[in-house]
Design brief:
Helix content is about 50%, strand content about 20%. It is α+β, with helices and mostly antiparallel strands and about 190 residues long. Residues about 1-15 have low confidence and may be disordered.
């Protein structure tokens, strides 16, 4: 198939999941992803400045889930992170998330900028209908200290202690590091304020 046709189909598919941009759930999902990203970046930068990458890994290990949990509770939706190459096995993608992450990888390969990759849809589960959203996380320069190819020996040792099954290394600037993942019940008639 012609590359231009394939790219057009992929881009059309990407926008299809966001067809109703006026949906308040989309705005709430975007706000929650932005809040989680901002909060994590803030604590990680502080830890990096105070004690370098080893300190940042410790903070990520103890604080990331707490931050996501607090945002989830306050907003009344499930907020988290996932990736195809996870560091923490608790963040492993479910089948829907894996499919979206693979789609993001295809779209990036077709030229779509990572910061533009997002997807949302209502899915039917055993528990009923759920609105789900994902926003790709681009790998930034600061991410390479802990997720790049040339990690400091002390960091490698600490990662082996905290995350013996770590898969989240070898990234370069601009790669898809993972994605924010948001879900809340379709029946939810309240959307927490930003």
């Amino acid at each position: 198939m012609n590359r231009l046709i394939v790219m057009t189909l992929l881009l059309a598919g990407a926008s299809a999941g966001l067809a109703d941009t006026a949906d308040p759930r989309l705005a709430a999902s975007r706000a929650a992803a932005q809040e989680l990203g901002g909060a994590l970046k803030s604590v990680l930068l502080s830890a990096m400045q105070a004690g370098g990458p080893v300190a940042a890994i410790g903070v990520c290990n103890t604080k990331a889930a707490q931050i996501a949990g607090a945002i989830s509770t306050r907003r009344g939706i499930d907020v988290g992170r996932t990736a195809l190459k996870v560091r923490n096995p608790a963040n492993a993608p479910d089948s829907w998330e894996r499919g979206v992450l693979e789609r993001f990888a295809q779209e990036q390969a077709s030229g779509v900028a990572v910061d533009k990759l997002e997807y949302a849809e209502t899915v039917t589960t055993d528990n009923g209908s759920v609105y789900r959203y994902m926003k790709a996380i681009p790998t930034a320069e600061m991410c390479l200290a802990c997720h790049g190819s040339n990690l400091a020996p002390a960091l490698t040792e600490r990662l082996a202690e905290l995350y013996p099954q770590d898969q989240a290394t070898g990234f370069a600037v601009g790669d898809i590091r993972g994605a924010f993942t948001i879900s809340f019940p379709e029946q939810s008639d309240t959307i927490a304020a930003e």
